[in-house]
Amino acid sequence: MTQIAGKVFVTINGQRLRSKEGASLETGGIEREPVVSDSGVDGFMEKYTAPKVDCKVSLTNDVRLADLQAFRDGTLVFETDTGRVYTLTGAWNAKPPKLEKGEVTLEFGAQECLEG
């Protein structure tokens, strides 16, 4: 039977984070938006979007918020339990870490996302 991805592992610069359920990846690339006139849909316009990873991690005594905040120009690996690996290059922390009820919310951006 085929396994469906259920768990993911997030690693930044070789350090695996204790990511919680619900981590997400947007691979980035071309986004197409419809162009509409009074006559209907004329076509679409393209624009680039950056890769993005959102995750939450448990706040343990080895997690330093300052280190997460300072992360930039690094490598982020988003790996699924089915063996699929997505490597984000030129990655950075996009927003200040948000601490709430023992977990830290993180958002990362990157230059590109490579599959495989």
Q: What is the element layout, followed by pairings?
A:
Layout: E1 8-12, E2 15-16, E3 24-26, E4 29-37, E5 40-49, E6 52-58, H1 65-70, E7 74-80, E8 85-93, E9 98-100, E10 103-109, E11 112-115
Antiparallel strand pairs: 1-2, 1-7, 3-6, 4-5, 6-10, 7-8, 8-10, 8-11, 9-10
DSSP, total strands: 11
Which structural class should the secondary elements be placed in?
A: mainly beta
Number of helices: 1
Helix content: under 10%
Mean pLDDT: 95
Structural features:
single chain, 116 residues, mainly beta, Elongation Factor Tu (Ef-tu), domain 3, nine-stranded antiparallel β-sheet, two-stranded antiparallel sheet, 1 helix
Plain-language structure description:
It is a single chain. With 116 residues, this protein is mostly beta strands. It has a single domain (8-115), classed as Elongation Factor Tu (Ef-tu), domain 3, CATH 2.40.30. 5% of the residues lie in helices and 57% in strands. It has one helix and eleven strands, in the order E-E-E-E-E-E-H-E-E-E-E-E. The strands form two sheets. Strands 1, 2, 3, 6, 7, 8, 9, 10 and 11 form a nine-stranded antiparallel β-sheet that branches. Strands 4-5 form a two-stranded antiparallel ribbon. The longest helix is centred in the middle third of the chain and has 6 residues, at 65-70. The two termini are 22 Å apart. The mean pLDDT is 95.
Compact summary:
The chain is mainly β. The chain contains one helix and eleven strands; from the N terminus they run ββββββαβββββ.
